[in-house]
Each structure stands twice: as structure tokens, then as C-alpha cells.
Amino acid sequence: MLSHAASGVRCIRKTTGNRNTKLVQLKHFPNVLSTIWIKLRSDRAERNILSNRILVEEPAKISLTGLFIVRATVQKGGVMCGIIGFCGSLPASEVLMAGLKQLEYRGYDSAGIAVRSEDGIHVRKAIGNVSRLEEKLGTETFSSGCGIGHTRWATHGGVSEENAHPHRAGRVTLIHNGIIENYKEIWETCGAGRTLVSQTDTEIAATLFDALYEEGKPEEAIGKAVAKLEGSYAFCILFEDIPDTIYCIRKVSPLVAARAEEGSFVASDVTALITYTQEYFVLPEDTILILKKGEMCLKDLEGNKVEPELLHVDWDTTAAQKNGYPHYMIKEIHEQPEALHNTIAPRMKDGMPDFEVDQIPDSIFKNIHQVKIVACGTAMHAGLVGKVLMEKRVRIPVTVEIASEFRYQNPIIDERTLVIVISQSGETIDTLASLRLAKSEGAYTLGIVNVKGSTIARESDYVLYTHAGPEIAVASTKAYTVQLAAMVMLSVRMAYVRGMRELDKIKQDYEALKQAAEAVYASLALEEEIEKLTHALTDKEDLFFIGRGIDYALSCEGSIKLKEISYIHSEAYAAGELKHGTISLITEGVPVIAIATQKEVYAKMISNIREVKARGALVILITQEDTPAEASLYDYHLTVPKLPDEFTPIPAAVILQLIAYYTSVHKGLNVDQPRNLAKSVTVE
Length: 684
Hints:
alpha/beta; Glutamine Phosphoribosylpyrophosphate, subunit 1, domain 1; Rossmann fold; 19 helices; globular
């Protein structure tokens, strides 16, 4: 009996108005259309989005598209898992285990491998991180050069060995990243006479592939199966009667592949491949990748060969190692000066920001009348800083939107709107869907991403690559500060192009940006002092961040960083809002991190600090080094070098990162792999 609680709903599209117009939208923007759905769980309603599906139950009109969206009861999605596959001359189990260690940040609830030997396909799984699987394997070896591996972030079904990947059904063994939305309907059509071992949508997908498979015709089975599947997926598939061959296909969920002297590789992320090669390609959606020891072939669903676009990684395997640091997070915190330099330097020409290297024309900045910044989590917090910078310099409306909300808020965008989407991975599903929505409405789109060849990078009209290098820790650090630098450069260039700022001031901004990047070294020099003061935070249950203006935007990032890895409940508030309820939570010993780097509002900020101090708060004060601060205001005082106010978030962010890091360390927590989180959210 299937244990999932979900209702199957028929997929229907309805249009109103000009039918021809709607058909054009469906044809050219197939992934833009979205559905609101609600599920009830533990007496709590949750909302999510199912991309490219309109599930009819209870209609509600979207005026922009003339479509009807609906409510439906389905299973909630989750986040990214890690996938690796290999066919070649090396022992497959060793390649797979090494790759899974590089991909573990994508999920660490369980891990498993499937390798082929002369006597069949052998599957090994373990609950927990990859080291648990390594322990379980022990000295066990397989005479195999072909296999697949997976590290899981649990979505459908709990954390158990039965729910770990790979999954088997008859002649099919596979791994999966994504969410199959219509799994119940699939099971009803192909599950007769079969018994499920797990509670996963993945095992049901494996059952479908097996049911459609005719001996010797794997590509036909894959084509038929994906035509029936709804949702997102990246599959790597072994067929029992086809030796030393892996078949792969994806939709939305990422896969990259490469050929090297050692064999053929496929993975969720290039970090698992760079030991063997720096040349790779992104697997196009709805194409079948066939991996064998001596060859790799890419075909569309009609069987035609496809030539992939080769990409180059400009960093090597050492960049994805700890290199003597106890955690990836602290290593990546220390890498920020280099990352900032790599992001800023290529875009500076004649003393001002220039995006010629990115092929971003000035015309898009001249013609717009509004900017919408769309992102999730840390990237969204970078957008909050960007809003302040742009509105101050450019004097046009700028709004910052949470990507998962933007998609169904009926946003007001048109051909004179610039939509900036920010994503470290370039694969964040809600941000990607927002990008597609913006394009469907004719807006200019600019992606700020770190990963070359990612989906957002490929689909944006223009892309500004940050050069943070690989970021392995789940908690983002260097990716955030380079996003801040990108926002500064964009705001300055826009102001110059639109005639809103004189050339000498533009050049002053450039110098200030360089100084802010250098000021990160001063923040890193505070590491020992920060490590000591965080002992005072480890036993706290609540913590508050306060700030005004751009400091409030930074407070939001400080708060999420702390809660991500220390599990301390924290909130960020605009300091002036304290009296509107929040101050009731300030009692003796409650920590308050007060960011007060903005001279324009410093006096007001001091008043707010006195309010919390009067109620017994433990205050950690962050100011510029030339700002006087009475000792009675704080318990701990940290400073950043003197800078123009709007540039202080770059060095101040590093202080907040170090506070979060050492608080987590002192609590004895897994800094790089915080509970319930994974690096990128690539399914809904």
C-alpha cells in the first residue's frame, strides 16, 4: 500500500481572452506558468509552487496571463541531493566515494552506491553522511569500472536505509534528484503486482522505467517514462542486461558531465569532476546522456545526436579542499579578499565599473524605469543592500522580492523593467521560475551567479558572474560578499550611464569599493577577539540583530547566518521598530548585536541601543573605527575601518560570519553540514 498522503489531480490548462496570444506564451515560455497549491500538515497550511503545471481543483484567475491557477493537495518538495556516475578504467567504488565526499554538502541524510560486477549490480547504502557508507563498505571491493552514487537530502519518506538511494525495481537501478509530483498516478498505472520497499517517489519512478523497458531498448523506455513524469528530476540509470553503461536524463535538476582519460563522468556539480578534468558540459534538458568506458554520447528524445557546449573550470581541486582549515566555512571566510578581488578587478576600466567583459550593454540601464531584485535567502539579503545603493544613486524605484513569493504575486513588470536575479548556484528553482516569468512579460533580465553554465546563467538575457570559486559550506559567506560587490558596481554604473553621478564621484566610489575589499583583512584580524566573545552566546536561546538603513539589510544576513549553523533563534529588526513590540522580548542577558556603521543615523541608533541596554541586554556593538562609543553602551565593541557609509556592509559582514561560525564551534555543532539544510534549493 502506498503510504504517501496525496491526491492525484488531472493536469489541465485554461485560457481566456486572446487565445492565439496565450498559445504563443505556452509555446515559447513553457516553464513560466505556475500553480499555487496548498497542503495541510500538522494543522498548518503550507504554500508552494509546481512549475509548469496547472492542476485544476479550485480556480483563481491570474490577470497577467489570462490563466486560471488552482489549489491542489500534493506532497511538498525539498532540496538538492548529490549525484555521481562513472564508467571507466578506475575502480568505480573508489571514484564514486571520492565524488560523494565532494558532493556531501548537497545532502547528508544518507548515502549509497550501485556498482556493476560480473555477477550483477551491487547496492550498498547507509544512513548518515558519506563516512558512514565508507565504514559500512570497509574493505569490500568490486571488480567494476561502472557505477552510480548518491547522497540524499530527505524529501519523500524519512531518513532510513530503505529510503536511501539507489533504488531498484526489476531490471532497473537508479538514483534521483528532484520531486516526482504525480507519483501516486504513476503507481496506479504501473504498480500492479509490485511491492514498494521504500516511501519514496524515486522507487515509483524506477518502477515506471522498468514497466516500460523492453530488452535492449533503454532509450525508448526513458523517452516513454519522462513523457509521463511530472515534476523535476535528474536520473542516472543502470539497466541489468546492459553492461557497463549509464543512462542519464534531467529536467530542472542539474547534471554536468565530462570525458577524461580515466573514463566518462556525470555529477550534480563540477566539484566532483575537477580531480579528473577541468572541461565539462551541462546536460541539456530532455536529452539522454549515455556513458560508457571509452565514449560518451548525447541524444535528444528522437534519437538525434546533440553536440554539447564545453565549459572550462578556472579553479582546480585544491580550491574545493579544506587545506588545513577545520571547516570549509572558516576557509571560505578567509578566501573573501581574493574572491572580492577576482570579482571587482576584471570589471574596472579607467577608474570606474565597466561590464564590457560581461557583454552587458549600457542601454539596458538607460531604458528602464524600475528594478526588481529577486532572490532567496542570503542572495536576497544582498539584494536588500543593492536596493539601498541603487535608489540612492539612480533614483528609480527598486523592490526586493522573495523569489518563492514573486511567482504568484502578479508582479507589475514590463519591457522597461530590469529584473535582477541573484543565485550562487544558478540553479535555485524559485529564482529560476521568477526569471522565466520576468522574461515572459518582456522584462530585461540580468543574472548574478557564481557557477558558469548554470541554468540561470544560460537563460538570463545577461549574466554577471561572480568569481567566488567553489563554496562548499552550506552557510554562504564569500558568495554573499561578492554579491555585495556586484550590487555596488551595478549601482555605480547605472548612475553614470543615466547621468545621475559625476565622473569624479564615480571614481571615488571605485576607490571606496577597493578600500572595502581591503578592509576585510581588518575584520579577519578580529578573529581571535570574536572567538572569545562568542563563548557568551553559546547558552542563549534568543538573539536579536538591530540596525538602521543599510545596517538593517545587513542585520537580516547576520541573523540567518547565526540561526543556520548555531540553532539559536535570532531575528533582525530595524532598530526604530523596537518600540513596536519587539522590545518586550529584551530581558536580562538577551544578546543584541547592534550594527551602527551609518553616520547619518548614528545618533538615532545610539538611542535604540540605550533602550535595550536599559533592559539588561548583552550588547555587541559594531561601528566604524573612528566613531566614538561610550563604554556604557556595550559589553563588546568591534570596529571596521573608516569607509563611506554604504561600503561598510562588506567588512561588517565578515564580522557577523565569524560570530556565527565560532558560536557554532563552541556549541560543538557540525558547522559545514547544519541540520535540515543543504547548499542549494533546486526543487520546490
